[in-house]
Amino acid sequence: xxxxxxxxxxxxxxxxxxxxxxxxxxxxxxxxxxxxxxxxxxxxxxxxxxxxxxxxxxxxxxxxxxxxxxxxxxxxxxxxxxxxxxxxxxxxxxxxxxxxxxxxxxxxxxxxxxxxxxxxxxxxxxxxxxxxxxxxxxxxxxxxxxxxxxxxxxxxxxxxxxxxxxxxxxxxxxxxxxxxxxxxxxxxxxxxxxxxxxxxxxxxxxxxxxxxxxxxxxxxxxxxxxxxxxxxxxxxxxxxxxxxxxxxxxxxxxxxxxxxxxxxxxxxxxxxxxxxxxxxxxxxxxxxxxxxxxxxxxxxxxxxxxxxxxxxxxxxxxxxxxxxxxxxxxxxxxxxxxxxxxxxxxxxxxxxxxxxxxxx
Length: 360
Prior knowledge:
The protein is mainly α. Helices cover 68% and strands 1% of the residues.
């Protein structure tokens, strides 16, 4: 078991925030940082995934051959793929069961699930291919693609390090300039999280987490970067509070460079998320000294992020159904949050307990 660290702490923070934000209308949703930010926990989660990959590549996997490294990283991608498939099927079963018990057929239309019930043959092929995704269950497909590309990222880091970030930036710019995204099927559309755009923040996390290059530069000049980040964070908070979003018709093509688009991770979102990370980087030590139990709990969640994320996704959908039945009151919302946090912590604890060696 890893001791509490900054990556796990903030990953745990992101997991709790994602859970709260995935229950629309929840009273406590107004206290999450996306209300004062152009970005949200999705950017934080993906950035930290890139950081974690760098720590793995330069830590436990540093001495592995190319073949062994590829096998190790692709096995992680497969694990995420299986997790996505399982929680999606559980979500479908939850919606179907709620429809039967509550006699509410419209629940079958929630979160892009209608195709599964109206066109099950093609929809299930789409689920397996990740071309059909339920709402609120669409970030792990992005993570599958990123982890599937992890061997290429790691090998490029080993043999052609100067090319990694420029290549990532070129792909990002191309996606925004030409509006390129992965298509969905059988429901016509595109991925909610465009891997061609979101790979950049993943790569930035990977690069910044290193002990050399951009990571070393960022740590040497952290005070300067924090000072530059502060006005960006303040301006972004003002825009979020005033619910300001630029209208596409006000800008020339390619408009995605100027919008606050989440699917394509438009520059404003990307810059604001990186500014937030620069502002709060290094704060873990202080937070841990002030709030040791809370920091330990968040680190526990972050150490077991995949299991906790899967549990949180199912719990958030359960919370949505619960609010539909009992209404959106502060008391019911508090019950959802308290029970959800407790169960996510229980899943994290059980994940670590399961990995402990049996006593002789």
